[in-house]
User: What shape does this take?
Amino acid sequence: KQEVTQIPAALSVPEGENLVLNCSFTDSAIYNLQWFRQDPGKGLTSLLLIQSSQREQTSGRLNASLDKSSGRSTLYIAASQPGDSATYLCAVRFANAGKSTFGDGTTLTVKP
Amino acid sequence: KAGVTQTPRYLIKTRGQQVTLSCSPISGHRSVSWYQQTPGQGLQFLFEYFSETQRNKGNFPGRFSGRQFSNSRSEMNVSTLELGDSALYLCASSLRISQEYYNEQFFGPGTRLTVL
Assistant: This one.
């Protein structure tokens, strides 16, 4: 079964800390992996998309890596800010699945 | 460039009624996917439409249906509503290049459906 797991479910850090969010998936045959953030009651905001042929993507203070062989992706957030507080979701488009499969997310709280 | 829009934003219905939700994708995007989000089940895929055809379908009962128009706008319909259908319904659009190559998915703000 193709599954996506995000651990931990919740994370609290002080402002300014660098942090890593994890995403694991059960099948290395993927088309792409996308990271999103979701604020309470809102839709999803796309952060980074990594295609199957890529190893990492960067946008501002965010860096996402992809290791298909181990079934893992990480989202690195540098110099965290209170405005980064949100739920972070990863979505994997498995080959031949015809859809994206989402993890349950990691809820991040950055304390001032 | 306008983002993905969804209407209405909020809906309150009673059991047994039916509901239609609308999604307008980003201009130029022909792929529209629908998801249901609940606290217990997380984000679950409903279906994807591309060029007016349903390409993929999730594991939902036949009460959930959808369609896509020639301008890529999409609607989903839920008939005979049940209490468990209360959820945030999200649609996403993307520039689907091929079966293997999808560009970024962009999500709308969602429609919050409450079934009483």
